[in-house]
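To start, an entry.
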Amino acid sequence: MVELPSYALPLGRLPSGLFILTAGVGDQATGMLASWVQQCSFEPPRISVAVRPGRYCGSLLGARARFVVNIIAAGHNAYLVHFGKGFAPGEPAFVGQATTMLSDGLLTLNDALGYLECRVVDRHAAGDHDLIIADVEGGRMIADGSPFVHIRKSGLHY
């Protein structure tokens, strides 16, 4: 049996939300499950998102790119199953999903509690993930409910 470092269990108990990021337009539109999304500034309103390099959705989040953070409801496991693995370039990400197209072509998920419209302002390598900093430029609540909160068993893997 592999012994975990002493910090692995308490690190995994840091709660995080579960969100669906949507990025790209037209044939490039895609989505992915994200668990490391956090507000990081009041003025200007900003969030941070950690994305593992190599994820197609993450590759669309270059300088000044726009994307959407969809806030999913507690217990909405269908989104976890659908978006959990991510999608390859050209692979349709929204088959069977009810979406709304915003004026700039980005997609929101109709069954989300709400969404944030974001624009990348910075990106840094941060260990085995890239940390993306984005301004919140818009958004709205769609439904009332509790957001999906995730607690990992260990801070060493998803």
